[in-house]
Write a structure and sequence with these properties.
The complex is a heterodimer of chains A (about 325) and B (about 400). Chain A is about 40% helix and about 20% strand. Chain A has about 325 residues and is of the alpha/beta class. By secondary structure, chain B is of the alpha/beta class. In chain B, helix 4 crosses helix 14 (about 335-360). The chains are: A alpha/beta (about 325), B alpha/beta (about 400). Chains A and B meet through helix 3, helix 5, helix 6 and helix 11 of A and helix 8 and helix 9 of B.
Amino acid sequence: MAVITYREALNQALAEEMERDPDVFLMGEEVGVYNGAYKVSKGLLEKFGDMRVVDTPITELGFAGLGVGAAMTGIRPVIEFMTWNFAILAFDQIFNSAAKMRSMSGGQFKMPITFRGPTGAALQLAAQHSQALESQVAHYPGVKVVVPGTPADAKGLLKAAIRDDDPVCVFEGEMLYNLKGEVPEDDDYIIPLGVADLKREGSDVSIITHGKMIHTALQAAAQMEKDGVSVEVLDLRSLRPLDTDAIMRTVAKTNRVVLVEEGWAFGGITATIAAMIQEEAFDMLDAPILRVTQADVPMPYAKAMEKAAKPSVELVIQKLNQVLYR
Amino acid sequence: MADDKKKDTSAAVTETVQAEDRSPEAAAEAGGELDRASQTEHKPRLSDEERMQGLSPDQLKKMMYDMLLARRLEEKVAEAYALGRIGGFCHLYIGQEAVAIGAISAQTPDDYVMTAYREHVHALQCGITPGAIMAELYGRADGCSKGKGGSMHMFSAEHNYLGGHGIVGGQIPLALGVAWKIKYRKEDRVIQVYCGEAAVNQGAFHESLNMAALWKIPMILIVENNRFGMGTAWERASSLYDIYQKATAYAMPSAVADGMDVLDMYRVTKEAVERARSGGGPTLIEARTYRFVGHSMSDPVSGVYRTKEDVENEKANDPIRIFADLLARQNILSQEELEKMDEEVKRVSEEAADFAEKSPEPEVSELYTEIYAEENVNGRLYFDMRER
């Protein structure tokens, strides 16, 4: 298998799906001539032309809505948001239109659209550019949400998203674009939506997480191993649909859970999962479920404050020790 | 002066019109006068022959039938609402019938229509049966959205009717996408999208106009200017009185149509449809109309933001009366034939209500269907305790 970056994996997914299906097109700010703000769409304009790789004005609500209308009448748009932070301007179209079209039409219209772009904090970008918004989007029934954490997952999940007949929101880690990993080259390499992946097996305690945070979790697990603690890391990969079977399996195995997410605690993904484990698997728990999230504040600019606000390896280790009563 | 301008614009197609004096000051000054002007008797500028545009007697009678059916069906809706048979928000189109009927008659069933929440007549004109509309309003299984949409979300893929949408202005970008698809697939089609005048102050309107004009895609945006955004008069909500002028900011052709005259709507829209079909891109049409009823069933016809006299004066311009007079003058439809037609549409409306009444409630077990494409996916889609 070739070792490529997360960015190249996404690029391959787009190119292969556009090659396979002439109804797939990519639209967004600077996806064409500029090759993409994060270079995910590099070379696609040259290959597919300007009806299929479309530069838009800076108008998120407008072009997101365009994608929804186009999907409603039978073609398959991939809408790139330069970052999910800007997609907030388009949330009306994602939540009020894309998520509900099938339902409110009594099943008459499908919605084969993919919305994608980077999420989460990078380095010192301050409050408006450092938000992990996947919990807000996953809040709405009618959408699907995936959060790939590795290059292989990025390719397989994006291809699955493009082939899906529902609106799928792909949250790419802003800090992951340069991450390298082995990626299958098969044209039909697909990771089905709703299937979690055990990124590390362990027996003493489980970390359940997604996206960029799997790397924080894996680092914490490696450090705990030196202390003789065996940590399992479950990467959800998909938030809606959610692989609840995999969650229950790991809870049943270790009986102790730490949940980690990059976003805020209130109404977060970890809040939903904690409630679900409590409702459905309370008897399996040997300790209270603990969570690690971003500090409940807008992200500050100053370096030290930013570091303190983000979920860290140290915090995860602290919570792991707490559920192990160490 | 203002009187002349009003008459002028209400009857004329105005291609990317030169700016009139519509500064906020002038608009404020002219506001009252414009209102009075529109309350005078309806005097179209064109002759009857010009207005009829070579439409056959059968086509003209069909338009009359459609207008009457729209009116009587909605009167039946109001009755059923009062009896508690229909729930939720319900926005009637009474007074505005000429707009949708004239405009939709100007395109073919292969073309698309999309609108906002005052949508019963658009749905009807696209070919959804009165029974399926009424059943949707009743929340029944035979409704055009199987009871899941209601008054504001009627759909029919079969009739290229792309729905009723409930967020002010939110449907305009969707229509832009349909027009984009038409271009992408190189189809010989257009889309008509409707919004109320209040929606033109939304960002969605401006973003869409810019892209539609930039890419020359076949979208016809019809602004139904009934002069009140819920209870706020247009002149209290917009710095610019003449909506069609907003198109000039996007180098887009625009026109004003008399929204009380079905034939003027037909004429102006037909021109826009032809332009769109021949690759000439989008058009903005301002249809000047008036609703004879409240914003929704919960809003009284008059009292708070307009007087009873205002509404009564406007009723002198009832689009059905104006059209019936023309057809009588031209010996196309006699008073007697009109009355017969009226009996017929009343019967159709009654039958629609009966059909709705007899249609079953949707199964509650349908609660979790038709939300996603597949019912059995990997992983879990729903997170309450109800569905298991």
